[in-house]
Amino acid sequence: MNIKGISLFSGGLDSILAVSLIRKQNIDVIGVTFETPFFTAGSALKAAKDIELPLRVIDITEAHLSMLKAPVYGYGRNMNPCIDCHALMLKEAGDRMNEEGADFVFTGEVLGQRPMSQTRQSLHIVAKLSGYEGLIIRPLSAKLLEETIPEKEGTVDRLTLADIQGRGRKRQMELAREFGIKEYSSPAGGCLLTDPVFARRLKDLFTHGGDSVRDIKLLKIGRHLRLSDKTKIIVGRNRDENEAIEGSADSGDVLVQIQGIPGPAVLIPSGCDTETLHKSAAVCARYSDAPKGATVTAMAKWGSETWTFEIKSADPEKTAELLI
Ligand code: SF4
After folding, report:
1. Which of 38, 178, 199, 302 could form a disulfide with 79 if both were Cys (CB 3.0 to 4.6 A apart)?
2. Which ligand 1 atom lies nearest to the CA of residue 117?
3. 15 lines ligand 1 (CB under 6 A)
4. Ligand 1 centroid to residue 61 C-alpha, Å
């Protein structure tokens, strides 16, 4: 019988080693990796190509977003709900077992490597939450963990799996040498939810009732300033961001720029009243090349309407207080 395992594959060294340990037993491996607005499949795709691993990329934006608003096990240091996120990924991978004709799921997790998500208890919790407890193998720490069903049944040989634990990387380096693995990306995965600035913006967004994919994508561009409970503005920091802001403005948004002076594009998502528009234009002037406190001509676009007005550049210190 052909045994097949599904690898939860990030492209980091630990997930590559986990694949190598399972493949060593002549078990077929298919990788799955995930995409959301917070992380991409880039590293996984590259690493999968290097090790000739068939890889399925699954967009879990909707499920991830709904989990992210109220994670059962809370957030880590920033807005990273790692326990719930791992459980969701394991569930998604487990759901693919039938369609792929696979027998188990495995990951590159290492017991004790991360304080929140890789304690013995967390590993147990995420497996249970996923609904596939007993079918999830952690090849790098398997000998230190409870025996899983495939190990009990002998479809996976527990004795050839590893017993790594803790934060050190020595054992992984040795295994990498043993398997002839030379290239791999950094283990820190590039998840925006662990970034303090992004996390602050996301928290502000959730607090003020925003949660669309567009709202979240906009968090990645420019400076964000909260002008009121209802209105937040986004200010471009360079030409690329100004273009991205202009390109992302839809008919309900207001776009503000200063006439005749180099400066940012400012987006007011979902429009605003006149007072807020003037405040936004003053901020726009503050981040332009206009002299401090100068009065300039601002131009606003709202749908097909365009109009201009005079505005005094905002005070830099007061503006800084509005930054999210
Ligand atoms: S770091 Fe990000 S992607 Fe990784 S488990 Fe935590 S929330 Fe999920």
Report:
1. 199
2. 5
3. no
4. 13
Residue whose entry in the numeric block shows the structure tokens 């045994």:
3
Q: 4-190 has which fold? A: Rossmann fold (3.40.50)
Q: Phi first, then psi: what are they for 187, rounded to 5°?
A: -70, -20
φ, ψ for residue 81 (rounded to 5)?
Answer: -90, 70
Q: Which residues contact 212 (CB under 8 A, 6 or more apart)?
A: none
Terminal Cα distance for the chain, rounded: 57
Q: Which amino acid is at 17?
A: L
Q: How far is the CA of 85 from the centre of ligand 1 (A)?
A: 6
Decide: 80 in ligand 1 pocket, CB within 6 A.
yes
Query: In whole angstroms, what separates CA 296 from the centre of its chain?
Result: 39
Cβ-contact 67, 81 below 8 angstroms: yes
CA distance 91 to 126: 9
- Smallest CA-to-CA distance from 112 within 133, 140, 86 is with 140
- Look at residues 1, 123, 102 and name the one whose alpha carbon lies nearest to residue 54: 102
Nearest CA to ligand 1 atom 3: 191
Per-residue pLDDT of 171-188, as tens digits, reads 999 999 999 998 777 655
Pair of tokens at residue 57: 């990329």
* H or E segment to which residue 40 belongs: none
Nearest to 157 by CA among 144, 171, 142: 142
Give residue limits of the domains in the chain.
Answer: 4-190, 221-320
> pTM for this one?
0.90
